[in-house]
Design goal:
Layout (H helix, E strand, L loop, with lengths): L4 E8 L2 E10 L8 H4 L4 E12 L1 H14 L6 E5 L3 H9 L8 E3 L1 E8 L4 E8 L29 E3 L16
Parallel strand pairs: 2-3, 3-4, 4-5
Antiparallel strand pairs: 1-2, 6-7, 6-8
Bound molecules: zinc ion (ZN).
Length: 170
Amino acid sequence: MSSFNFKRESPSAESQVIFFDGSMDENAKLPTFDSLVQAKSLVFDFENCGVINSSGIKTWVKLMYELSDLEGVNITLRNCQPLILDQINMIEGFLPPNGTVESIHVRLFCEKCEKEFSVLKKVDQLHDGLGDVVADLKQVDCETFPKCKQFINLDMHPDKALTFMHRMKK
Ligand SMILES: [Zn+2]
């Protein structure tokens, strides 16, 4: 049984926001192409979908491939969890040519508290890379923050994590 679901919102007649929830695996039913084809703006929200397997990747890439053929359609990937970001960077077609990544969860690790957490960052604020992410931390879910701030490190490759930025159309 799949624990995957999605919720759909239509902020306007021409736009849809799809909120994923659960693991995108072989049982995951994505929205059908026909149910999306009317919209000019499609936003896919991964806030509650941090797990994906090879079957889920295949299903997703197929849908993106179909949607990338549509003229004048913009696809946005929002609140991408680290594992989703990995696929965006590694898998050809995971981010379609008409697609944009709006925001990503940057994974961090505090060596003092031995705690892993992530902070959400807007991609258009990351043109200087991930170097300032730790310095910019105001509040995090960490036991002795801000005292432990000096022990917090990026838990992603600073360049590889942003490979997708070169592929996004400006
Ligand atoms: Zn800490």
